[in-house]
Structures are given as C-alpha cells and as structure tokens.
Amino acid sequence: MEKLRQTDAFAENVYALVREIPRGRVTSYGAIARALGQPNASRLVGYAMRHVSVASPAIPAHRVVNSTGVLSGKWAFGSANAMQELLEKEGIAVANDKIVGFKQVFWDPLSEL
DNA sequence: GGATTGACGTGTC
DNA sequence: AGACACGCCAATC
Q1: Which of A1, A39, A44, A56 is packed most tightly, with the most Cβ within 10 A?
Q2: How much of chain A is helix, strand and coil, in % rounded to 5?
Q3: In the structure, how far is the CA atom of residue A28 from the C1' atom of nucleotide C3, in angstroms?
Q4: Pair A48, A64: CB distance under 8 Å
Q5: Is residue A42's beta carbon less than 7 angstroms from any atom in nucleic acid strand B?
Q6: What pTM did the predictor assign?
C-alpha cells in the first residue's frame, strides 16, 4: 500500500480536482487551494503537484499554472517543452512559457464545479 | 528540532 | 509592466 504523504486529505483533493479539469482549460494553484478551503495553502498545492509526477494514475498537471499563467512547473515533466506541447495540443496557446489568454482558458473549480 | 526551501499569491516600488 | 519584498504551510536537511 502506498503511504500518503503531506496532508493526506489535502493532496487527495488536489489530485481529484486536477483530474476534473476539462481539456483545453487551466487553473491556478491558488484557485485549487481555495477550493479546498485553504486560500493561503497555494504552496502546498504546488508541493503536492511536484509528487504527482510519480503518482498514479497520471495527473494532467500541465493544466495547472500559477496566478500569472506561467508554466512554473514545466521542468517537472522532464522536458521544458513537454508541458507547452501538451497545452498547445489541447488548444491552449503558450508564449514564452506563459499561457496566452490565461483569463479565457481559466477554469475556476469554485464556480464551474 | 530549528532553519531553509518551494510547480504560490498579493502588494508595493 | 517588470522587479522586489513579505506572508503561508508543509516537507526536507
């Protein structure tokens, strides 16, 4: 059995939420943290996301970016272009490691879920 | 067990 | 608009 790391329930919710992100949409760490009831735990979300690379099933972490729409964790995918390629593949434009029209493709779990 | 760090966020200069 | 500083919470050293 896999032992849960971090704040078990918190990470669990993060993973579940990220998996619910529709294709062609993105969200921010802060939005997820708020959806979990911890508006200031944005860093914990990112911390948990860092572990999803080895978690299963695979989590579309490429759809999660920071509030500025920057692909902060692109390096966690193994390649700097991997995350951008995935996003563009889903119809999300990325320029200079930043999401184009971030506000347009932004998916708010609090409002849309 | 204190100090540092981190896929963050918001405010200020 | 870009750069810098402070705050938050948990994990790692």
Answers
A1: A44
A2: 50, 10, 40
A3: 22
A4: no
A5: yes
A6: 0.90
